[in-house]
Structure formats: structure tokens, C-alpha cells
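Input.
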Amino acid sequence: MARRKRYPKSRRTPTRVTVRSGTTLWGYSQHYYGRGKLYPLIQRANQRKIKNPDKIYIGQRIRVPRLRHMRHKKR
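Output.
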């Protein structure tokens, strides 16, 4: 039986991250939620800073909201 990878609490539920070179909202969503397609949640939480999800800038501080019902199952 494959073991489910467990992440430290700080990795699962951050509050803010600083954008680094080469990162995307999809990448942050994949990293913190386990599903890249949830990137609109991050965009919505940062509506004033992120107008276009394809344009985030190095050094920008963005909020990564917690998911209400966190599941690590991949579908």
C-alpha cells in the first residue's frame, strides 16, 4: 500500500508567500493544495494585486488561503 505523503502544517496552510523567479499560481496551488487547478483560489484572495493570473512578479507578496476541507487525494 502506498503511503500518503504528509506535509508539515506550515506547508499546507501558509498565509503569505513571496513570489520567486520561475513560479506560477498553478505551481503554488500544486505545492500547497496538491492540485494545480485550484489556482483561482489564490487569485481571488489577491484580487487587488493579481489582475491577470499569468502575470505575477518577483518579490510580490501574495496570500495563500487555507482550504476549508483539505484533501490530498489526487483525482
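DSSP finds three helices and two strands in the chain.
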